[in-house]
Specification:
Blueprint: E1 4-5, E2 8-9, H1 13-39, H2 41-48, H3 53-87, H4 95-106, E3 110-113, H5 115-119, E4 132-135, H6 137-185, H7 194-215, E5 221-223, E6 233-235, H8 238-295, E7 296-297, H9 309-323, H10 327-355, H11 357-378, H12 385-398, E8 403-404, H13 405-423
Parallel strand pairs: 7-8
Antiparallel strand pairs: 1-2, 3-4, 5-6
Helix pairs in contact: 1-3, 1-4, 1-6, 2-6, 3-4, 3-6, 6-7, 6-8, 7-8, 8-9, 8-10, 9-10, 11-12, 11-13, 12-13
Length: about 450
């Protein structure tokens, strides 16, 4: 245009009309955003809540930012209205009108009164100490965008925590109450059972957590690193998740107690049976020990212990718990008794095996001797004098009482060797199983 002013070349009518259209669209978008922020459920909740901690600090700042936002918007609206009035004076704006519009649309023509007071609370506006501030329309839009983004971020974060955690805490608290009633019905109470103590601790933690979430939601907000979008982040559910897992553990323990109540009699009957079998096995071992001492000479036979009286006493205690419906005490006792009863039965069987080992050795020697005799007979050597003499010697030793196993084994081995030599086979060495190559 060839005419310049403090803000540069004076705009022509088309430039002015395009700028006014763009500013009008921006005005409408900003107004829509501000009204949406004003009506946001999170903002209304923040206004009415008794806040504490970091949320109280952030909301004080955000309230000041929102107030400043509206002041900026009002100044922006006034400037836009003034520009439209000037443009509407005449169909073809004069050069003076265009110069005035250029200054208004491009220059620092917007004055915001009291900006320093509001800016002291706004995180994105530096307080200047002046009673008013001047902006270009572009600067004013940039300031409003910054304030809007920070305000919306705070409101969305608080609303997200309030939308997520209190409802979940209430559901968990309801489940906690049902679990508490069930626990009481089976005798799981604080001071009497660890699960009862855990229920009390979970109750206190959930109560405190809900109070903190309501009064200071931002303390339970985890921003997304590197995100510039308002409300970028997630609610911190660490404490809630931990207590939910703890309640599930308690519930499983109570289910175990309930199972005990349903199966207690059957489990007690089985326990009595296992202990009775252990006692009978020990009695058999003691009887076998006497037989071994009488029939086997020069043999060390282990001593057989008596039945464990402690297990019987605890079994009686378990029966008493069942009669008195003390399921929470019966549950761990039954688990312990079942394992110990199985261990006792295994010990009794091992004792019987150890005691009867000499009789097993004697039976094995008798079987080996008879097997070789049958083998000799198949080869027509049943009347061989040497074999007959050695067989009779070994048999007399094995069928006499008490039997000296070491001497009897030597006698059997001598018979084996004589039979092998007679049959032209390899002579087994002492301690080597007979007929290892399937010769018998």
């Amino acid at each position: 245009m060839g005419v310049t002013g403090p803000t540069g070349p004076v705009m022509d009518r088309d430039e002015v009309d395009r700028a006014l259209a763009r500013l009008g669209a921006e005005h409408e978008a900003i107004e829509t955003s501000l009204l949406a922020l004003q009506d946001h459920a999170g903002r209304r909740l923040l206004e009415g809540a008794e806040l504490t901690g970091v949320t109280k600090e952030r909301w004080t700042s955000t309230e000041a930012s929102i107030t400043l936002l509206w002041a900026y918007f009002d100044a922006y609206t006034d400037a836009l209205r003034t520009a439209r009035v000037i443009r509407d004076r005449r169909r073809w704006s004069s050069r003076e009108d265009l110069a005035e519009l250029t200054e208004l649309l491009r220059g620092a023509s917007v004055t915001v009164a009291g900006g320093a007071t509001a800016a002291a609370y706004a995180p994105t506006v530096a307080g200047t100490g002046r009673l008013s501030e001047r902006f270009t329309l572009a600067e004013l839009v940039e300031r409003m965008n910054e304030l809007y983004a920070s305000s919306l971020d705070m409101v969305v974060a608080a609303d997200a925590v309030w939308s997520a955690l209190p409802a979940r805490i209430d559901l968990l608290a309801a489940e906690l109450q049902r679990t508490r009633r069930l626990a009481h019905s089976v005798g799981v109470r604080p001071g009497e059972h660890p699960a009862g103590d855990n229920l009390e601790r979970i109750t206190r933690t959930l109560t405190r957590l809900r109070e903190q979430v309501i009064s200071d939601p931002l303390a339970y907000w985890v921003p997304t690193q590197g995100s510039s979008a308002p409300g970028g982040g997630r609610p911190d559910t660490t404490t809630y998740d931990r207590e939910a897992r703890a309640l599930e553990d308690v519930r499983r323990e109570i289910d175990a107690v309930l199972t005990v109540r349903q199966d207690a009699e059957a489990r007690l009957v089985k326990l009595r049976d296992v202990l009775s079998r252990a006692d009978r096995t020990l009695a058999e071992a003691r009887s076998a020990r006497g037989e071994v001492l009488a029939k086997i000479a020069a043999s060390e036979v282990p001593v057989v212990s008596g039945p464990p009286t402690a297990l019987q006493e605890q079994l009686a205690t378990a029966a008493e718990y069942r009669r008195n419906a003390q399921w929470h005490r019966l549950s761990p006792l039954l688990e312990s008794l079942e394992q110990r009863a199985e261990d006792e039965l295994m010990r009794a069987r091992e004792s019987l095996t150890a005691v009867t080992a000499p009789l097993a050795v004697r039976a094995e020697l008798r079987g080996r001797l008879d097997a070789y005799k049958a083998k000799v007979a198949r080869h027509g050597l049943a009347e061989d004098p040497l074999l007959t003499e050695r067989y009779d010697t070994a048999r007399r030793m094995l069928w006499s009482a008490p039997c000296d196993l070491r001497v009897a084994e030597q006698a059997v081995l001598r018979y084996q060797r004589a039979a092998a030599e007679t049959l032209g086979q390899r002579v087994p060495r002492q301690g080597e199983p007979a007929d290892r190559r399937g010769e018998a």
